[in-house]
Amino acid sequence: MRLVVGSVVLVGAGSKLWIDAPLYATLTSASLAASGLLLIAGLWTPLVGAVVAVFEISHVLTTGPDRLTCLLAGTVGGALAMLGPGRWSVDARLFGWKRIETSPGRTRSGT
């Protein structure tokens, strides 16, 4: 999931870096490209996933041509912010891979 969203964000932002755009658009594209690289590597995934979600959802609300791609990338970026990087990531190597364990549901007695 990280690799797909990171590559989509990186390609989309990278293509916007090569055109003559205003400064705010260039800075936004540069931060999205850096976020895509960090997602691919799996470094600082919760923070970078939240950044991608905010930027992509703001693109959905402000721009027109590729709204569905931005919506998908923003949604999966938010999911990555909540779920974490996974086993094969730099975060897992640095901080250890964390697994969420849920307890089995309680059963009620018939009283």
Notes on the protein architecture:
The protein is an all-alpha fold and 111 residues long. The protein has one domain (2-87). It has 5 helices and no strands. It has helices at 2-17, 23-41, 45-62, 67-83, 90-95.
Short recap of the structure:
This protein has one domain (2-87).
Q: What value does the Rg take, in angstroms?
A: 18 Å
How far apart, in Å, are the first and last alpha carbons?
Answer: 47 Å
Report low-confidence residues grouped into runs of 5 or more: none
How many strands in all? 0
Query: Helicity, in percent?
Result: 55-70%
* Proportion in β-strands: under 5%
For the largest beta-sheet, the strand count, sense and barrel status come to: none
What is the residue-averaged pLDDT?
86
Silhouette:
elongated
Structural class: mainly alpha
Number of domains: 1
Number of helices: 5
Give the helices and strands as they follow along the chain.
Answer: HHHHH
